[in-house]
Write a structure and sequence with these properties.
Blueprint (H helix, E strand, L loop, with lengths): L3 E3 L15 H16 L3 H17 L6 E3 L4 E3 L4 E9 L9 E8 L6 E3 L4 E9 L9 H6 L2 E7 L5 E8 L6 E3 L6 E2 L4 E5 L3 E8 L3 E2 L6 E2 L5 E4 L2
Antiparallel strand pairs: 1-2, 3-16, 4-5, 4-15, 5-13, 6-12, 7-8, 7-11, 8-9, 9-13, 10-12, 14-16
Length: 223
């Protein structure tokens, strides 16, 4: 049975919300208040519903992180859309294992570090906004890539990729930061995907179509 621990101290609130969501919540709540003061009942109700939805979208639950040796965890909530060996990629030289996770608007969108180590490099690239579950999104969409070196010297890369609706990638860490498995590192607003590139000899523990949760689902093991 897996042992679990907290990557970060649990927060003392029943419904934690990511700080990045505060401006969105405040803007929609303010607009709703103005509509209510103007006596526009129908629009006020719609605004109230939108406020609650955005609060729910930016939910950021605490997650217990499994502590199995060599296990790497999911960086995102969502559905696995690819598990495959890749001969070449824009992020890793040589052969590697690629695992891709698609997040729809109903998933928690806070991203977590899949394995402990040091952030060696971060590279942001602006781009287009194709549906994130399409392959052209990998090449053309806005994205933010992070390279991490594990304590054993292995190199892994995880890439935040914007989707059709997403218009903002948020990364809250910097190069040189020491991270622990399951620690929060950012989020993507309103639908997106995260791709993970691992050493070629990594052993996957998931399959296409499987639903996973950031920080708690073990995607596989490093050798």
């Amino acid at each position: 049975m897996s042992q679990f621990s907290w990557a970060e101290p649990p927060r003392q609130t029943g419904f934690p919300v990511a700080k990045a969501g505060y401006p969105f919540i405040a803007a929609v709540a303010f607009a709703t208040a103005v509509l209510a003061l103007l006596g526009l009942a129908t629009l006020s109700v719609l605004g109230l519903a939108a406020t609650f939805f955005i609060c729910w979208f930016f939910r950021d639950p605490d997650r217990p992180i499994p502590q199995e040796a060599q296990a790497f965890v999911s960086p995102a909530d969502g559905k696995v859309i690819a598990v495959r060996p890749t001969e070449t990629s824009a992020f890793v030289e040589g052969r590697c294992l690629q695992i891709s996770i698609f997040m729809n608007v109903f998933n928690v969108h806070v991203n977590r570090v899949p394995y402990g180590g040091v952030i060696k490099k971060i590279a942001y690239k602006p781009g287009e906004f194709w549906p994130a579950n399409q392959e052209k999104a990998l090449q053309n969409n806005e994205q933010n890539a992070l390279w991490l070196e594990t304590e054993n010297g292995a190199s892994i890369c995880f890439v935040q990729i914007a989707g059709l609706v997403a218009r903002r990638i948020i990364c809250q860490v910097q190069e040189g930061d020491q991270m622990v498995r399951g620690q929060r590192f950012g989020l993507i607003c309103f639908g997106s995907r995260v791709d993970l590139y691992l050493p070629a000899d990594a052993v996957p523990n998931v399959s296409v179509g499987q639903k996973v949760s950031a920080g708690t689902s073990i995607l596989g093991y490093l050798k």
